[in-house]
Design brief:
The complex is a heterodimer. Chain A contains 12 helices and 18 strands. By secondary structure, chain A is α/β, with parallel strands linked by helices. In chain A, helix 4 packs across helix 7, helix 7 packs parallel to helix 8 and helix 8 packs parallel to helix 9. Chain B is α/β, with parallel strands linked by helices. The chains are: A alpha/beta, B alpha/beta. The structure holds zinc ion (ZN).
Chain lengths: ~425, ~300
Amino acid sequence: MRKLLIKNGVVIDPVSKTEVNRDIYIEDGVIKNTAGTKRGISGKDTEVIDASNLLVLPGFIDMHVHLREPGFEYKETIQSGMESAIAGGFTSVCCMPNTNPVNDNKEINTFIINKAKAAGLINLWTIGAISKNNGGVRLSNIAELKESGAVAVSDDGKPVEDSSLMAKALLYAKTFDMPVISHSEDIKLRSKGIMNEGVISLRLGVHGIPRVAEEIAIFRDIRLAGYYNAKIHIAHISTKGSVNIVRQAKKAGINVSAETCPHYFSLTEEALLQYNTNAKINPPLRTKDDINSIKEGLADGTIDVIASDHAPHSEDEKNTTLDEAPFGIIGLETSLALTLRLFHEKTVSMMDIAMLMSLNPAKILNLKGRGGIQNGFTGDITIVDSDKKWFYRKENIKSLSKNSPFIGENFRGKALYTIVGGKVFKL
Amino acid sequence: MSYGKKDLISIRDLTKSDMLYFLETAKEFKKISLKDIKKVPTLRGKTVINLFYEPSTRTKASFEIAQKRLSADSLNIVISQSSVTKGETLSDTVLNLESMKPDAFVVRHYDSGAPYLVSRITNAVTINAGDGINEHPTQCLLDIMTILENKKDINSLKVAIIGDIYHSRVARSDIYGLLKFGANIYLYGPYTLLPKFIEVENNVKVAKSMEEALKDADVIIMLRIQKERMSLNFIPSIEEYRSFFKLTKDLMFLARKDAIVLHPGPVNRDTEISGEIMNSNRSVILKQVENGIAVRMACLYILLGSRSKTI
Ligand SMILES: [Zn+2]
């Protein structure tokens, strides 16, 4: 029997909304005796972590990552992606289906799940495709995907262009209580755009992506969900307008949740100056004004989730023109540190972070027994030193890919232990 | 008892006592079908035109046999959808046929509401043999007849209707008819195939699972799923439909011990319903076919002949 005692930490549990100095005991992967009783369970078979001056949070869940296996193992494998996640303090990741072949059937889904299990590192949940081959034409076998272990469906990387298909997807997925995650984008309006349409795209002389390309699509998807009384999760929102649309929809009682990524509250379009391909993402980096709105949305609960949208691409692929380089940046190893900047500047509390990075994703994806530090919950814990200073060095990146615009930055705050079902990864 | 209306187009036009009148009459005609000589002279000299704009085997055969057993003269006009585009309009066709002085039109059409158009043009009786996704009133009557042969009363029975409700005129007529008998109706299928506003009807509930729909059900009506539904993404595949929406023996255990299973046909065996159940004594699918003839005889008799003749 594996026993783990985490002593003297400040335990932040978003389920009970408590933040108290106490011990946690994990036995056989399950959290026990969390009611503050210092039972002093220790013996030579009990592993002990002294968490004095540290924060003990429910294991972080990144509900939006791209592991590139199968198909693009040179960018990332399931194994390397999970190692990157551990380094970032994540006990669970949810991988998007745009692999090759696309995860639109139970064979691929089972392959990914088994591969992750064999690695024996962290929890991996799969997100199946909404449409076959992410083609936007035919619905995939969503019930079969759910039955074989997928926790949501999405065509992420591409929008579901056809409104009728999106309506059917929402209704069909609702039959099986399967969450639908929308990459909301009017792709024809994006056209050849590669970065936010604004002053910088003008100066760089490149095609811009109008912010309304995101907002129109989010509005459509939310209206569809509202009309069909279905649930929808909006991935990676990046503009002020998007925050406002989600806020109003929530006020109107629509069952919508929303996610943003650390880069959307950390960087502006100016990161693309010098044609920096490591800042090319979709949706694109926006403006200071948008950053402020995203922060407001995080603070007032409009935005439910912070996810990395970890999108590895090889150096060769990024070492080209802005036009030719693929969209996407890695994020698993910087997500927490960037989010902690919001904590240090008092935009969000540690409790907010526990919600944004653990409880809310668990709730949205119906992951039972996760997202909190409660008796009987799975022993997924992230122990954080919110003050630890560190420097983001390319050589230290665990991900196979190094496409990050944050390389060379100083950070304050880091995960020291990633604990998955009681199994300790010391960082 | 009597029935005052000229046509039978929507089950919603019928009161419960109207329906009982049709069913009582059908019961009498069922006896005729069991006799050695199955023909009566009731509708001798009456002309019935079966105007079918959609392929139909079962319903057309059923109406034709009903007409033959009542000694009516029938004329079958089958118009394929492709020839309509080049040919005359529905109203022109009916006007032409009208000048031949028929006594009744039995209309099957791919467009909802087509029988109303026919009725407005003709003085003859109009019987709806299925219009678009709207209604199939004689199917409802034969379903209720079949249920009443097995259950004393429909009031407060739990009736589960499962499958493609959205495109099913049978489901719509059954729902409206059964509600008048006080049934509690549970609908289930992929939510893509459930009409959005159906729950405005009192006593109609959209179930959250097969299990909820079938639990303690007295009557189970399974509907046909068509492959064509894949093309507009109502379902992803027939295989998945089979895995999640087929009535199986295991699911039957949730229903009442004396539950009966209906299906309007034609059945996709082992797609919407397992062959095992079809072969079992729970299935009343063949009874439905048998009662179909009696019900259609009753409809023709009541609408065409009851005012002047007796059986
Ligand atoms: Zn996306």
